[in-house]
Amino acid sequence: MKTIGILLFDGFEELDAVGPWEVLSFWARRFPDDGWQVITFSRDGAPVRAAKGLVVHPEHSYETAPSLDVLLYPGGRGTRAHLDDEAQLDWVRRQRAKVPLMTSVCTGSLVYARAGLLAGRPATTHWASLGLLQELEPTVMVRPDDRFVDDGDVVTSAGVSAGIDMALHLVARLRDVERARQIRRGIQYDPRPPV
C-alpha cells in the first residue's frame, strides 16, 4: 500500500487540504486495488484549527505517520510561521530526502522555497504570493499562469481550488488518465463559474 500524506497545521486554508483530500480519498476508497491510501497528519497529532475556523483532528503525528510516497503541503496564513521555524524547515528537508514526490497547494510552496527545495526549478503559488515566492528563492522560475507545475519529484499548484486540479493530475500521473476522469466524474467536478 502506498501512502499520500496531507499535512495539517493551524491556519491551513481549508480547501487547500480538503479539495485534494476529496479527490485522492475518493480514488483510494473507490479503487482500492490501485493500492493507495490517504492520511492526514500534523506535528503532534493534535486537532488543528484551519484558516476559517474548521477544526480537524489529524489521524497521525509526525512520529506515527507511515512512510510517505507523496507529501501534500497545503497553504494558508499558517505557512507564514513555518517560514521562520527552523525545526519545521529541517523536517521539510528530511522529507525531501525520503519522500519520492513532494507536492504543495497555494502558499505551501513558500515553505518549500524557504527550505531550499525550489532552487532553479519552475513553481507556482497563490497569485498574491508570487512575489514572495521569488523573494524567498530568487532562482525559482515562477509560473504565474499555471494552475499547477509538475517538475518531476516536486509538484506545486496555484491557490486554493487549483489543488483539486493538481490532485486530479496526480491520479493521472500515479495511475492513468482514465482513472482521473473516473474520479472527476465521481465527484462531479466540472467547473463552470457563474460569473
Topology overview:
Blueprint: E1 2-7, H1 14-30, E2 36-42, E3 48-49, E4 55-56, E5 60-61, E6 70-73, H2 79-82, H3 86-98, E7 101-105, H4 108-114, E8 122-123, H5 130-136, E9 141-142, E10 148-150, E11 154-157, H6 162-174, H7 177-186
Parallel strand pairs: 1-2, 1-6, 2-5, 6-7, 7-11, 8-9
Antiparallel strand pairs: 3-4, 10-11
Helix pairs in contact: 1-6, 6-7
Provide structural commentary.
This protein has 195 residues and is of the alpha/beta class. The chain has a domain at 2-104 and 159-186: Rossmann fold. Helices cover 36% and strands 20% of the residues. The chain has seven helices and eleven strands. Strands 5-2-1-6-7-11-10 form a seven-stranded mixed sheet, sandwiched between helices. A two-stranded antiparallel sheet has the order 3-4. A two-stranded parallel sheet has the order 8-9. α1 runs parallel beside α6. The protein is globular, with a radius of gyration of 15 Å.
